[in-house]
C-alpha cells in the first residue's frame, strides 16, 4: 500500500519529463502568432490571444507600409495584437499613418485590439537606439493601446542593463523568440536562464513542432507571462 503514492510520483515525474523534452504542440497553448497566408487550424478554437501580421516596412522603402492582410479581421472574442514586421526603423510619416489607419479599421470591425507589436530584430548593441525609436512610437500611439515588441534571446544574456532599462515605461511586453525559421535555436536554455534581466513583462515565443524543454526556474520569474506559439504554414 505504501508503494502506491511512490509509484504515482515516479509516473508523474516520468510523464512530466516526456512532455518537457518533447515538441511544441499548439493544442497545449492559447496564444499564437498567425502570419498572413497561414490558414487557421483547430487549435485556434482555444485561442485567447492572437498576434496577427498586418504588414511590413521593407528594407528598400521606409515610406511605405505594405499590407499583407488587406481585410480587417473581426475577432471580438480574443485579445488581438496588430503586428508590423519591420526591416528598418526610419519610418516615414505615411507608414505611421497607415499603421494607425489599420488599427482603427480593425477596432471598427469589432476586433478586440489590445495593441501594436513591432517585429524588428534589433541587434543587441543597437538596443539603445531601438528603445529611442520605441519611445517616439509610444508617444504617438493612442493611450488605449499597448505596445509590444519581439526580442532576441541575446538581449537577455548580453544587452547593456541601461538599454534594457530604457524599455521600462515604454513597452508593455517583450516576446522573446526562441526559434529561427522553423527550428528552435540550439542552446536556448542558457539564454532563457537570464530572461529575468528583461525588466518588463515578457513571454517566450515557441515554434510549432520545435524542440522545447522548459528551463528550470522560468515559472518563478515574476515577469514571465507565458508562451506564444508561431504557427507554420502547411
Give structural notes.
The protein has 234 residues and is α/β, with parallel strands linked by helices. Helix content is 27%, strand content 25%. The protein is built from six helices and eleven strands. The chain has helices at residues 3-20, 93-108, 127-140, 153-158, 161-165, 188-192, and strands spanning 31-34, 49-57, 66-67, 79-86, 113-119, 146-152, 173-177, 179-180, 183-184, 202-207, 224-230. The strands form two sheets. An eight-stranded parallel beta barrel has the order 1-2-4-5-6-7-10-11. Strand 5 (113-119), helix 3 (127-140) and strand 6 form a beta-alpha-beta unit. The termini are far apart. Residues 1-20 have low confidence and may be disordered.
Amino acid at each position: 500500500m505504501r508503494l502506491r503514492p511512490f509509484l504515482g510520483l515516479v509516473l508523474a515525474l516520468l510523464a512530466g519529463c516526456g512532455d518537457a523534452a518533447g515538441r511544441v504542440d499548439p493544442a497545449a497553448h492559447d496564444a499564437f502568432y498567425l502570419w498572413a497566408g497561414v490558414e487557421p487550424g483547430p487549435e485556434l478554437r482555444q485561442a485567447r490571444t492572437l498576434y496577427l501580421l498586418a504588414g511590413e516596412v521593407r528594407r528598400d522603402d521606409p515610406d511605405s507600409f505594405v499590407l499583407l492582410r488587406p481585410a480587417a479581421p473581426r475577432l471580438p472574442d480574443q485579445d488581438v495584437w496588430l503586428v508590423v514586421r519591420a526591416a528598418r526603423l526610419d519610418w516615414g510619416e505615411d507608414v505611421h499613418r497607415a499603421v494607425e489607419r489599420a488599427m482603427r479599421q480593425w477596432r471598427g470591425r469589432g476586433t478586440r485590439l489590445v495593441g501594436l507589436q513591432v517585429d524588428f530584430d534589433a541587434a543587441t548593441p543597437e538596443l539603445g537606439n531601438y528603445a529611442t525609436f520605441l519611445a517616439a512610437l509610444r508617444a504617438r500611439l493612442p493611450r488605449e493601446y499597448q505596445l509590444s515588441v519581439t526580442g532576441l534571446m541575446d538581449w537577455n544574456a548580453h544587452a547593456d542593463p541601461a538599454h534594457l532599462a530604457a524599455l521600462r515605461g515604454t513597452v508593455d511586453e517583450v516576446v522573446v523568440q526562441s526559434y529561427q525559421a522553423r527550428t528552435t535555436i540550439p542552446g536556448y536554455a542558457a539564454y532563457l536562464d537570464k530572461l529575468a534581466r528583461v525588466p518588463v513583462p515578457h513571454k517566450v515565443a515557441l515554434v510549432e513542432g520545435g524542440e522545447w524543454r522548459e528551463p528550470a526556474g522560468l515559472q518563478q520569474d515574476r515577469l514571465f507571462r507565458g508562451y506564444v506559439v508561431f504557427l507554420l504554414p502547411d
